[in-house]
Design brief:
- The chain is built from 8 helices and 15 strands.
- With about 325 residues, it is of the alpha/beta class.
- The protein has one domain: Putative cyclase (Glucose Oxidase, domain 1, 3-Layer(bba) Sandwich), CATH 3.50.30.
- The radius of gyration is 19 Å and the shape is globular.
Length: about 325
């Protein structure tokens, strides 16, 4: 598929930010997932060599308590009759754990959501809902291991510090790992947040989720250079093991990666993934690609979904 370069995309009137609203048409619901064609699926399936499956999703109750004021899921057990029981989930927030951000999740000011939709989510109907992704995100995954690279090069790193990882460093890590993302791949960025979170005490986790506590974690820079890298690499999605893919708090002088990617470029984002076991396996073999499988829930009009993701090596 021939796509325009990032620098050739048109900009919004009155806001100097490139958009890709006409690349797949103004009625598009898939954005960068359009890049996962049959060839990309088959290439992704062929990467698996040992049949070793690794979950890339956190349990539904992690982080616990949830971040950003999201409600904690509670599980009830309901007896249907003498021999059968059901689960009942209350206060279930699909984006409280490992999750996909749908196109109705984030807008760009008055310019709207992906493809310029300016109505609010309750009025979208079948436009931009997460159900359009439910056929599955099946392709090749490429892991970028930030903490392992920093340790190897002797540079300090703290996943809870709010450091922004810039585009040249992502390219540096890819080169050091000798792996090349191909069009339609999912770029998976391990930032070490999951491991750091699991090392916190219960009281520290409560404090981290408190509304009075500033949100601070390392992540990708919200810069134009990062958006250019992801677009020109033609990734189908970018995922990370931190709460927002990008660093927080963001720098207003640099910009928001959420705003650049979701409503303007249509690049799918996944957050709070679990890449620790996958990273150890990749490092042991010295290979950093794998079969990526993620199946968002088929929830009509959904703004997000649990990740439901696995990697196969």
């Amino acid at each position: 598929m021939s796509l325009p370069a990032y620098d050739d995309l048109p900009e919004l009137d009155g806001l100097p930010l490139p958009h890709a609203w006409d690349v797949w048409g103004r009625l598009d619901n898939l954005g960068s997932l359009n890049l996962i064609d049959r060839a990309a699926v088959l290439r992704g399936l062929a990467v698996a060599r040992r049949g070793h499956r690794i979950s890339l999703s956190l349990p539904l109750n992690e982080p616990g308590p949830p971040l950003f004021g999201r409600r904690e899921v509670t599980q009830g057990l309901v007896q249907q009759d003498r021999n059968s029981w059901d689960d009942r989930l209350d206060s279930f927030h699909p984006q409280s754990s490992s999750q996909w951000d749908g196109f109705g999740h984030y807008r760009c000011r008055e310019y709207g959501y992906w493809t310029g939709v300016t109505s609010e989510p309750a009025e979208h109907g079948d436009r931009l809902g997460i159900e359009h992704w439910a056929d599955g995100i099946v392709t090749r995954g490429v892991l970028v291991d930030v903490p392992r690279h920093r340790a190897r090069t002797g540079r300090p790193y703290d996943p809870m510090s709010g450091e922004a990882i810039d585009a040249p460093e992502v390219e540096e890590i890819l080169k050091a790992q000798r792996v090349e993302p191909l069009p339609g791949d999912v770029l998976c960025v391990r930032l070490g947040w999951t491991a750091a979170y699991r090392a916190l005490s219960p009281d520290q986790r409560v404090e981290l989720a408190s509304e009075r506590t500033p949100t601070v974690h390392s992540g990708l820079a919200g810069s134009e250079a990062m958006a250019r890298l992801l677009w020109d690499r033609h990734v189908a999605a970018v995922t990370a093991d931190n709460p927002s893919v990008e660093a927080a708090p963001g720098d207003p002088t640099v910009g928001s990666l959420h705003r650049r990617l979701l409503p303007l470029l249509g690049i799918v984002m996944g957050e709070l993934f679990d890449f620790d076991e996958l990273a150890a396996d990749c490092a042991a073999e010295g290979s950093w690609d794998f079969t990526f499988i993620g199946v968002p829930h088929r929830m009509p009009g959904g703004l997000g979904s649990p990740a439901n993701a696995v990697g196969v090596r």
